[in-house]
UniProtKB/TrEMBL annotation:
It comes from Neoroseomonas oryzicola. PANTHER family: GLYCOLATE OXIDASE IRON-SULFUR SUBUNIT (PTHR32479). Its cofactor is [4Fe-4S] cluster. It catalyses: (R)-lactate + A = pyruvate + AH2; glycolate + A = glyoxylate + AH2. This is Glycolate oxidase iron-sulfur subunit. The keyword Mitochondrion does not apply. NCBIfam families: PRK11274.1. Binds 2 [4Fe-4S] clusters. It holds the Pfam family CCG.
Amino acid sequence: MQTNFSPAQLADPDTAESNRILRTCVHCGMCTATCPTFLLLGDELDSPRGRIYLIKDMLEGGKPATEQVVRHVDRCLSCLSCMTTCPSGVNYMHLVDHARAYIDRTYERPRAERMLRRLLSFLLPHPARFRLALLGAWFARPFAGLVPGASPTAQRLRAMLRMAPASVPSPSDVERPRVHPAIGPRRGRVGILMGCAQQVLAPSINEATIRLLTRMGIEVVVTKDQGCCGALDHHMGHHDPAMRFARANIAAWSREIEGEGLDAIVINASGCGTTVKDYGFMFRGEPEAAQAAKVAGLAADISEVLTRFGYAPTREAPGLTVAYHAACSLQHGQKITAEPKALLKAAGFAVKEPAESHICCGSAGTYNLLQPEIAGRLKARKQDNIARTGAVLIASGNIGCLTQLGDGALPAVHTVELLDWMAGGPEPAAVARARAAA
C-alpha cells in the first residue's frame, strides 16, 4: 500500500510504525473471509481492509477522527483473526490500537458514551470497585427489561444489567501478595497475574492454577503492587491509564526477576496474556524498555507452562465430552492452538471443536457492553455451533469468553479448572451442573 506521510509525521514513533504496517498491506482482501463483523454486516468498511483504508486516511490527513471512522473502528472486536489469515504479515493489532488512541485524543464522543467508557475504566480494572458495582447490578438485574428506548445507551445499559452474575463470589485468600511454596522438590518458580475482573467473577480460576502448579513442584509468587494488565483501557484507546497499569506490573515482576528469579510469568486469562506479551512493543523507547521486553519474554499462558513442566493427571478419565472454545486472544493473538486441546485429551476428556472455531464469540473485553447487538449475534452463532458438537461442557482459557458463553444451555469452565480436577483438585461447579443436566 502506498502511503504519503510527511517527514514531520514520521518523526512520531507511533505514526512511523503505522506507516510501516500500512505499507505491508497488499489489498488482497483475504482478511474479509474471517472477519466476524464483515461476516455479519457485509460492509467493506466493517472489514479489516476497509478499516485500514479509513485509518490510513485519518492518520495521513492528520485530522480529527470523523464519526464514520469511529463507528467502523469501534465495531472491530480486535479478535485478530485477520492476522492469522493475512499472507503479508500485516500487524493489524498495532495499527488499530494506534487508531483507537488517536480517536480518543481527537474525537469527542456523545456525552452518554463518554460517561459509560469512563465508568468502565473506573470500575473494571479495580476488583474492589467492580465487586461493589456487581452487587448493585444484582439488585437491578430483574428490571433490565424495563429500561426504555432503543438508543445505544439504553441497549448498553440493558446488556450490562443482564450480564450481572446471579451471585458474586467472595474474595479469595490466594490472591493476596505471598509466595505459594512448591509441594515436594521445587522444579520451578513463577510469577502469576491475578488479573482484575477475573478475581471478582471467578476466583476459582486463580485458585485452581495455584493448586495445580504447586502440586507439580512449581513455586508461585503473587507479587505486591501488581494489578490490571492494562488491556481494558488499552483497547478503549486510553493510552495513559493503560501504560500506568502496565508500568506497575513491570516494576513488580522486575523486582522478582532481579531477586530470586522467575522461570515464567503465568497468565490464565488469554486476553491479558496477549497484552503482557506485547509490553516490549508498548514500551519501546520508554525508560522501562529493557525490563518490559524481559517481562514480555517471560509471559506464558497457563497451557504453555503446564506443557513445559509435563502435566499429568492422577484421576481416571471422567467420561465427559468437552467443547473447546478457542479464545481469539489465544489462537490469533498468541498463536496457541494445540496445547489446551492436548492437555484436555491427556486429562481424559473427549474434546470437540465447534464449527467456525476461528470466529469470535463476541466478548472481546468490553465489546459485549459497548456493542451489545453485534456481540449478541456472535454469541448466539457460537452457542449454536457449540451445541452441535454434542458436548456437555464448554472449556475455554479466557474469562471474557466464559462469561459470554456460560449463560446458555451448557455450563462453561476454565480449562485449568478441569486439569486441576483431574490432577487431584476439587470438581468444578460447572462439571456438577453438566452431570446433573446430562
